[in-house]
From TrEMBL:
Gene3D superfamilies recorded: 1.10.286.10, 3.30.1130.10
Cross-referenced InterPro entries: GTP-CH-I_C/QueF (IPR043133), GTP-CH-I_N (IPR043134), GTP_CycHdrlase_I (IPR001474), GTP_CycHdrlase_I_CS (IPR018234), GTP_CycHdrlase_I_dom (IPR020602)
Region span, Disordered: 1-123
Species this protein is from: Hypocrea virens (strain Gv29-8 / FGSC 10586) (Gliocladium virens)
The name this protein goes by in its record: GTP cyclohydrolase 1
Length: 311
């Protein structure tokens, strides 16, 4: 989806200097870097939107966005006029990026059908899944009719729906208005959030810990919402890199903080049980937005608070 921001994927503060050096040798990244440099000289707040906007493909949906995106805002207003039959919901959806299902939760056509289906359709879906699991059992050489396996297709179908229940959730419902104007502007860190996700390449689990930090721009989010946002995106088919970005982008969109930092450390069963069979390896991904991306000091403070370099 989005073009990667130049510092995404940084594993540790130690790598940042060499990372910068490498980026400077690269034409496209260095021009991007200049743009960041310009913005970083300015006070935080509004400008941080601009910096961050360059890291995602979709235009900002918030009316308060910078004038740079004016033409896109105008287009959205036109859309809204066209929708005037449904004015109230349409307006509120446009007013906050948090309410935009497609922007923040990215369900596909199939997941939207899943969310909106009737009881009968739900039952039909489970039946199809059961049939597929029975086929799988046959294909591995098992007898799906032996006692131990009789209820397995149904159990697995239900479990799979649970593992992917994040497709039925969206950030707006999760946040549910829990954003408070506290005038707070110090770093907030929630670390060691357990996540359980499914690797989209092998449909086997990867599990790990998410560490989230942000620096508010006056507004703070109810602290329990951060693990719930992590949970929502992890209960989908994922790759760790995208999961990291999904969480960071959602928090940034919903809260407009000075910066957001997300680090995930996890172990992938597709690596442990098959392939290279490295049982103790940990994969670390990070996504730094706003002031975490611009200021090494801020980034290092976060990394030392989450103690990610303890090994
Ligand atoms: Zn995998």
């Amino acid at each position: 989806m989005a073009p990667q921001s130049p510092t995404e994927g940084r594993d540790s503060p130690g790598s940042s200097a060499s990372e910068k050096k490498r980026k400077n040798n690269n034409g496209s990244s260095s021009s991007k870097k200049r743009a960041y440099g310009e913005a970083s000289g300015l006070p935080n707040g509004a400008k941080s939107h601009v910096v961050r906007r360059s890291s995602i493909s979709k235009p900002g949906r918030d009316q308060r966005d910078e004038p740079v995106f004016k033409h896109k805002k105008r287009k959205r207003r036109d859309d809204r006029d066209r929708d005037s039959g449904n004015a109230t919901t349409s307006v509120s959806r446009q007013d906050s990026p948090a309410i935009d299902f497609d922007g923040l939760s990215r369900p596909s056509v199939g997941t939207r059908q899943r969310l909106e289906e009737t009881e009968e359709e739900k039952a039909a879906r489970l039946d199809r899944m059961k049939g597929a699991v029975k086929t799988l059992l046959e294909c591995v050489g098992e007898d799906p009719n032996r006692e131990g396996l009789l209820a397995t297709p149904e159990r697995y179908a239900k479990a799979m729906m649970f593992f992917t229940q994040g497709y039925e959730q969206n950030v707006f419902d999760i946040v549910n208005g829990a954003i408070f104007q506290e005038g707070h502007s110090e770093m907030v860190v929630v670390k060691n959030i357990d996540v359980f996700s499914l690797c989209e390449h092998h449909l086997v689990p990867f599990t790990g810990k998410v560490h989230i930090g942000y620096i508010p721009n006056n507004a703070v989010i109810g602290i329990s919402k951060l693990p719930r946002i992590a949970d929502m995106f992890s209960r989908r088919l994922q790759i760790q890199e995208r999961l990291t970005k999904d969480i960071a982008n959602a928090i940034f969109d919903v809260l407009r903080p000075q910066g957001v930092a997300v680090v995930i450390e996890s172990s992938h069963l597709c690596m442990v049980m098959r392939g290279v069979q490295k049982t103790s390896s940990t994969t670390i991904t990070s996504c730094m937005l706003g002031c975490f991306e611009r200021r090494e000091k801020t980034r290092n403070e976060f990394l030392s608070l989450i103690n990610v370099n303890r090994h």
